[in-house]
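Internal QA ticket QA-208
Title: Verify multi-chain structure generation after dependency bump
Assignee: T.L.

Test input:
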Amino acid sequence: MLRTIEEKKPLIHHLTNTVTINDCANMTLALGGSPVMADDLLEVEEMVALADAVVLNTGTLNPAMREAQLLAGKTANRLGKPIILDPVGAGATTLRTDFMKELMQQIQFTVIKGNASEIKTLLGQATTTKGVDVAEGESLDFHAVRAFAAESNQVIVVTGPVDFVTDGQHELHLDVGTKRLGQVTGTGCMTASLIATLLGAGYARFEAAALGTFLMGKAGEQADEKKGIGDFRTGLFNAVSLMTEETLREVHFNEA
Amino acid sequence: MLRTIEEKKPLIHHLTNTVTINDCANMTLALGGSPVMADDLLEVEEMVALADAVVLNTGTLNPAMREAQLLAGKTANRLGKPIILDPVGAGATTLRTDFMKELMQQIQFTVIKGNASEIKTLLGQATTTKGVDVAEGESLDFHAVRAFAAESNQVIVVTGPVDFVTDGQHELHLDVGTKRLGQVTGTGCMTASLIATLLGAGYARFEAAALGTFLMGKAGEQADEKKGIGDFRTGLFNAVSLMTEETLREVHFNEA
Amino acid sequence: MLRTIEEKKPLIHHLTNTVTINDCANMTLALGGSPVMADDLLEVEEMVALADAVVLNTGTLNPAMREAQLLAGKTANRLGKPIILDPVGAGATTLRTDFMKELMQQIQFTVIKGNASEIKTLLGQATTTKGVDVAEGESLDFHAVRAFAAESNQVIVVTGPVDFVTDGQHELHLDVGTKRLGQVTGTGCMTASLIATLLGAGYARFEAAALGTFLMGKAGEQADEKKGIGDFRTGLFNAVSLMTEETLREVHFNEA
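Actual output:
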């Protein structure tokens, strides 16, 4: 738990999937934030107003959730709240690809974080993804991502063996993590929660995006000594809860 | 697992949130009960009729869930089944506060368990809560809680650093637990499951409320030796599954 | 993680309950598969088309989920995709029993896996089940199960102290596992995910049904050294993630 975050205890409002919702709540707490999940249309706007940051995650959709996410996003924009999009499964089905377009047209995100297949879909590029995992050997056009970040004024995080973070002007390649992070469901979703918690605590958008991504990779490295995947997963929560400000200083931000 | 509970294996019907629903099921099992979660309007009444106790938890709402909870509550009352309310997030949004009022007007609860912010909201008092965590420094008017319990004929549990349990005539202050219970999502929800399991096994309402609350605090103390929050969380389930009748005897019930 | 499965990384589409959905995803990953959960009616057909196997689990129902499961099942049949039914709670309420009938009438399953109470309900036999756990002392008419498997051309798995697997011609009794598997929610659901992952990786239906059931029992035995139920649960994921092809060879398939 980071002391600076624990003191502020930012409220992180999630509109997210039913698969990893518990993990996202616990990861937010592990870093020192306070998670809340509320997607009843009758309370979405009020909850966004209370929140310090908002997460939209498209992992499991239904008509009410789609409507609630659009409402939450527009409310966050109106009130100037940081908002992050985790476009889970973008490219896998027409519904997901179309809904992402709708989200992107109607909402200005602070940060968008996805794997290469998902980000390529947002850029309108072809992808061979099936499901919610990144397609094997998916390649990325860094130039296009950078241009998209600059034009749309959003920080883009592309997670992968080496994570890529750009706001169009600054960028970082983070060579951190372990392949095993892909063997536990929701490590991507939890990364979005970490970024949102940092945003909610007042970190600037590029720093929050980079540090949240770095923290999950670092947690993976620290948990990697565990042999079984059950222990590895528990280790991720241990690691984040024991992180200190010291760890954040391992990320070096350079001017563009 | 308590032998007396395991032998009866009470069926605990939950209408609860999607964040901690798995934890509530596993905690019910850890104490020796049998959890069931069913909120399809077409089966709520039948499932309540099968159940030994019912839990309503307002952590994540939607129109169908709200309707199902009202139906489950009224059915439990009609059939004389014990029913517990966990008013998660009461006070945070108008929807939640209004829905709590509706629940309280239409349903007679056996036990209501919440944090200070939530219980104050039920009493019609102002609170500074945001989200589902208790507001910092929230103070409690014990007299008002006691009067509310007596008038409404419901046992009220206010969880906190020292838990307070009252039926208006008897009361207990339980100085048990650890601050870290607030660093894992759902420990409050799980406390409601423990109370419901005790109710379903035949414990009287005041005893069930006090013992269920005590068990979670005790589990927290036993798990507290773990450094990371992932291990601490796993330790809570270990602890409850290894509880014996001996532990329950640590709670001393005095006459009013 | 089984290398043969990891190489193929079959996509396993789940339409399942909100209680154990995270466990099913993680168990699919632990064996080497790629889980996806999608029940929005607008994407069900497309996701089934992408999937290598489909799981229908009736643990928590609602009108949209019921419609989505019927659609997914019919689509799987039309496209010749393996599909497994986990009829959670069959027999407990009229809704569940009726919905199972509807599923069985409209969909041809590759494998149906349930406890004795659930399978008896599918056979039209009386059961004393309440909730989602098997009724105490539930007895099983092996002859009827065998006949049902043969007539319906579906592999039937009846889980219990000794698991029974039959396709009407071949059969296996698997004396594997531990009583403690019943003390963690979702071990049955996760067994269905293991079977589906094997089906998706290309195993023949009888082998997949037997091996998936065996793997969960074996994982239970390996985790059984753990005292507390939290550690036992984590141990299940460890065990499956560390399984090798060697373990599968412990199951001896005899000709009928």
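Spot checks passed. Chain C touches chain B at residues 17-20, 22-23, 59-63, 89, 92-96, 130-133, 183-186, 227-231, 233-234 (CB under 8 Å).
Status: verified.
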